[in-house]
């Protein structure tokens, strides 16, 4: 009889398994040499999405080799998930892959330091994430399996609204709305109206007195330009982070397509 181990997968991780095999308890043929990390990834679950691992009820690392007949439990990462921060750093820095441009703009609206490129390949993304200690957000499972990546996370959901909710539930970051340029991620600084009024439309010039300008690209912002829709995004995000931090509402990840 072929040796096997039993692997119990947390419900939040079943989405990574092939649709026809999304049973929480899987019987996996055992070769006697593979590590827990290899077993989990062979089922389709990227290790950055894995939280606690146990073998026969005892905590175990991804490098442990289970024995034939063992039962392995694979939990999802905790929510909110801690991220190592540098001294003086209030919130994680992020880097988004090419498919998450709209999410990047919404994160910048909330004041999150969010790098984004629409032309960067996978190796370059890993290099930047590691060099700048940014959490790499992606929907590319292969990218999350790169061993060199220091910290990555899979973004659940196909719509930007769902993606943002998933990000806020997972990390509950400190928000600083209206402080970053949504176009380039630069910091917004106050600017005197007299310095920019020649570049303003007459209606804007008459209606608003408080302005900010991106320190990097020079784009000018004023609160009225954002509209009610962006105000609602900020308000909902603030409530969502508070709920995730206090545990008043269970943070449910968005369902992936």
From TrEMBL:
This is Mut7-C RNAse domain-containing protein. PANTHER family: MUT7-C DOMAIN-CONTAINING PROTEIN, MUT7-C RNASE DOMAIN-CONTAINING PROTEIN. InterPro entries: Mut7-C_RNAse_dom (IPR002782), Ub_Mut7C (IPR027798). It holds the Pfam family Ub-Mut7C. Residues 4-75 form the Ubiquitin Mut7-C domain. Residues 92-233 form the Mut7-C RNAse domain.
């Amino acid at each position: 009889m072929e040796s096997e181990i039993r692997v119990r997968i947390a419900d939040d991780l079943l989405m990574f398994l092939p649709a026809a095999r999304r049973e929480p308890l899987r019987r996996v043929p055992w070769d006697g040499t593979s590590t827990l990390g290899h077993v989990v990834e062979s089922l389709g679950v990227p290790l950055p999405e894995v939280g606690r691992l146990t073998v026969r009820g005892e905590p175990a690392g991804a490098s442990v080799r289970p024995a034939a007949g063992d039962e392995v439990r694979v939990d999802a990462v905790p929510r909110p998930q801690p991220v190592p921060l540098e001294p003086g750093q209030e919130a994680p820095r992020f880097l988004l892959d090419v498919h998450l441009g709209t999410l990047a703009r919404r994160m910048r609206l909330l004041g999150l330091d969010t790098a984004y490129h629409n032309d960067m390949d996978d190796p370059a993304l890993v290099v930047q994430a590691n060099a700048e200690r940014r959490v790499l957000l992606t929907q590319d499972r292969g990218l999350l399996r790169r061993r060199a990546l220091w910290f990555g996370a899979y973004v659940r959901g196909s719509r930007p609204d769902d993606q943002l909710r998933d990000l806020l539930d997972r990390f509950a970051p400190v928000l600083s709305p209206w402080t970053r340029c949504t176009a380039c991620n630069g910091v917004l600084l106050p600017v005197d109206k007299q310095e920019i009024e020649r570049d303003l439309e007459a209606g804007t010039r008459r209606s608003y007195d408080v302005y900010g300008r991106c320190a990097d690209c020079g784009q000018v912002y004023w609160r009225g330009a954002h509209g009610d829709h962006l105000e609602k995004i900020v308000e909902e995000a603030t409530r969502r982070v508070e709920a995730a931090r206090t545990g008043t509402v269970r943070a449910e990840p968005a369902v992936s397509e």
